[in-house]
């Protein structure tokens, strides 16, 4: 039996990601949950994190597991090991698949899945289709100060968006927690920085005003953040935050960083998408940036993925005046 992992990946709207196999594969044009074979010496959890990163350039947080599925395809027999995961990345890079879709839980039974993925979809829909998964509280504040070591362990073991939201609420009640989240987001430990910045982004979604005093420092450190997972979280925060409160100097630093990210062939799709939105908002403040942004979007058109092309066309449409914006006061 071949041991294979797969990920049922949810976004903030509780939609699930499904991907379509290519025409020249074992199961042409069938849909599936992303994943792949477990390599020698690799744990099941390590495998699914690696496979999703390689196939889709996405970062995920493992939340729970579903029942394993044994299936005999005739030419091969597999044990499919499904994980339920959360992500902030809504635009995967399709390195192996032909297409992707975000679908509601109620739509899963209508998807033309590969045979082994059908029980996974049914199992997920049965468990999560009617109500949200229960949250196990994390002891962020029990009348004593949580040590740095405890806090790090808590962040790394965070189990999905519900737990992230619980910590976000705690960060509002305790500013020390918010500051710790920010500091750990700069960590050289890739997993710690990803989880911390992911929770920080969730916190800013709910309580955007908390990040305002720290925006200049974030902009100044962007070029030194080598962890792309953390960088995309910071760019996401900036793309939705009040960047008009930044100084001209910080606007310049931010514009330079985002233009560099757009022109770099190796930047992740989410980094490029958030950079486009930031530059569009800066162009509303500094209209002279509009020409450079338009030229840059035209330059990357030929090499960009379908998701980036669509995002770029949307930005160009807004730049051309189809959507009003406000300049710098």
Properties at a glance:
single chain, 329 residues, Nucleoside Triphosphate Pyrophosphohydrolase, 5-stranded mixed sheet
Describe this structure in words.
The protein has 329 residues and is an alpha+beta fold. 48% of the residues lie in helices and 13% in strands. Among the domains are: 2-128, Nucleoside Triphosphate Pyrophosphohydrolase (Alpha-Beta Complex); 242-329, no CATH class. It has helices at 44-56, 117-128, 148-156, 161-173, 175-185, 190-206, 215-221, 228-240, 248-263, 269-285, 289-300, 306-322; strands spanning 2-10, 16-20, 31-32, 35-37, 61-65, 69-72, 77-86, 99-103. The radius of gyration is 21 Å and the shape is globular. Mean pLDDT is 86; it is low at 131-138 and 322-329.
Beta-strand fraction estimate: 5-15%
CATH architecture of one domain: Alpha-Beta Complex
CATH superfamily of one domain: Nucleoside Triphosphate Pyrophosphohydrolase
Radius of gyration: 21 Å
How would you describe the shape?
A: globular
Return residue spans where pLDDT drops below 50 for at least 5 consecutive residues: 131-138, 322-329
Terminal Cα separation, in Å?
A: 65 Å
| Overall strand count | 8
The helicity comes to 40-55%
- The first-level CATH class of one domain is given as Alpha Beta
CATH domain topology of one domain: Nucleoside Triphosphate Pyrophosphohydrolase
Q: pLDDT average, as an integer?
A: 86
State the major sheet: 5 strands, mixed
**Helical/strand content category:** alpha+beta
Oligomer: single chain
């Amino acid at each position: 039996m071949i041991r294979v992992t797969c990920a049922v990946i949810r976004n903030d709207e509780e939609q699930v990601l499904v991907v379509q196999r290519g025409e020249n594969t074992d199961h042409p044009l069938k849909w599936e949950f992303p994943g792949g074979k477990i390599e020698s010496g690799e744990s099941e959890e390590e495998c699914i994190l690696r496979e999703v990163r390689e196939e889709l350039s996405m970062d995920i947080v493992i939340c729970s597991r579903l029942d394993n599925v044994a299936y005999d395809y005739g030419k091969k027999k597999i044990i499919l090991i499904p994980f339920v995961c959360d992500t902030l990345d809504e635009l995967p890079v399709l390195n192996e698949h032909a297409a992707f879709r975000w679908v509601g839980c109620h739509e899963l039974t209508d998807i033309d899945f590969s045979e082994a993925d059908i029980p996974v979809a049914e199992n997920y829909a049965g468990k999560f289709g009617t109500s949200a998964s229960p949250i196990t509280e994390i002891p962020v504040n029990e009348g004593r100060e949580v040590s740095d070591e405890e806090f790090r362990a808590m962040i790394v073991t965070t189990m999905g968006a519900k737990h992230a939201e619980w910590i976000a609420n705690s960060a509002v009640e305790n500013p020390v927690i918010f500051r710790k989240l920010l500091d750990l987001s700069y960590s050289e430990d890739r997993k710690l920085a990803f989880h911390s910045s992911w929770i920080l982004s969730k916190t800013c979604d709910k309580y955007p005003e908390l990040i305002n005093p720290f925006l200049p420092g974030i902009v100044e450190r962007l070029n030194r953040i080598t962890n792309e997972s953390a960088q995309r979280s910071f760019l996401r925060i900036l793309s939705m935050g009040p960047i008009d409160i930044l100084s001209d100097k910080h606007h310049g630093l931010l514009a330079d960083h985002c233009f560099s990210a757009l022109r770099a062939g190796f930047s992740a799709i989410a980094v490029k998408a958030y950079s486009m939105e930031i530059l569009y908002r800066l162009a509303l403040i500094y209209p002279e940036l509009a020409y450079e942004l338009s030229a840059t979007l035209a330059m990357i058109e030929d090499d960009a993925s379908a998701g980036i092309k669509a995002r770029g066309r949307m930005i160009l449409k807004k730049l051309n005046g189809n959507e009003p914006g406000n300049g710098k006061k």
